[in-house]
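SAMPLE LOG
Freezer: B-3
Tube label: C17
Construct: single chain, 344 aa
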Amino acid sequence: MRKRFTLICLMLLVLSTIILADGWTNVAQYAKKPPYVIGWSINNAGISWRTEYIEEFKQQAKRLGNLIKDVIILNADSNIAKQIADIEDLVARGVDALIVDPQSPTALAPIIEEVYKKGIPVIIVNDPIETDKYTCYISTDDFEFGKVGAEWLVQKLGGKGNVAILDGLPGMGVAIERFNGAMSVFQKYPNIKIIAHEYGAWSYDKGKIATQNIIAAHSGKIDGIWSSGGEMTLGAIDAFLEAGLPLIPMTGEALNGFVKRWIQVRNKGFSSIAPYKPTWLSAAALEYAVQALIGFPVPKKIIYPTPVFNEKDIDKIVRQDLPDSYWLGSLLPDEVIKEIFKGQ
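STRUCTURE (predicted):
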């Protein structure tokens, strides 16, 4: 059991260079014998990225074998009040460790602090929280995500032009960080004008509608689109094509359907860049929760550099045998991927 645990730890640690901040967490107070019950409060499960994200967690629980007695996953459906209630429910059900993907970096802070003070290890994953009362925080650099896309777009536009923003969800940590990263670049260029800022909830449908609204208000005046990622850029491409407009540079994310469309329309002058947030973050969060319970030290903060796909990568990474809703960069076995996307 210990050998298998060590191998999984090593696998996660070599996935990427880790940026460590704030040192290591003392976990001696958490140590207890397995098997463990792990609770996970997820803020929403509404897009295909989260289908993989949740499955990565479940597969990691299987790999951990006898270390895990049960995992309890509660979905807050983007509702802050429900997520607070979900966390209270998980604590009442006696979980040994709590993993939280917070809907709001501020509104969830008090309940996170309350759980932490009870002596339960708390792992924050994906979205940030505005407190240091947690055991471990693990994510990718969302500020860098926004910055990388903005730098690429500014270069494509020659440092001048009208840019439209397709944002995620108001008040959500990932969206805030990505937007701030983008603006840290745009603000350096006085000839870059932000002419529209719409929210598309990272979804295809809402991203397409947001783009249609932008086109209606600024047709012929849009030189580039910065997107917070998700499925929104695919919707933006389709909105432009259906409107009969020439395609413009748009930033994206590593969604299989987006990369397929990118390949299809690159001969029409379309270009993009695809930073992305790996779905395996949930598996890493579960790993570090178990490490803390075993008594194995965990870093206080783990920020993986944001992976990025460019034009030269797309023919190598696309999965024509998988549906558009598949997210590239997954660590799931192929048979599991094909099963969860069966019928799509």
